[in-house]
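Lecture 7 notes: from sequence to structure.
We start with the chain below.
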Amino acid sequence: MATSKDGGNKGAADSGGSEQKSQPAKRGFAAMDQNQQRQIASKGGQAAHQKGTAHEFDSEEARRAGQKGGEVVSRNRAHMADIGRKGGESRQSANRAAAAAKTGNRQGGKEQ
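Predicted structure tokens for the same chain:
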């Protein structure tokens, strides 16, 4: 005897027994395309400026915010080491390219 509960399990067994959770359908603002979202957000920003309640960063406030973010990022030693390594590699390859351009050698200054 097949019940409705068994019928529901049958579909899961056909797919190898793994359950797939689908994302819920987007609704409202999230379902709109980006241009529509930008237009609506722009109207909100314009209204806030007209009302006088919009916040505008001055240069000092922006500087403090950037400094605070930089301090947080610099606490991660591994991240900072990675940044330095990439910068060194970039500089080294730029120096090799400049040397190759001077000598006309395409091998980055290495003689064959």
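Points to note: Residues 77-103 form the longest helix (27 residues). The helical segments are 4-14, 34-51, 59-74, 77-103.
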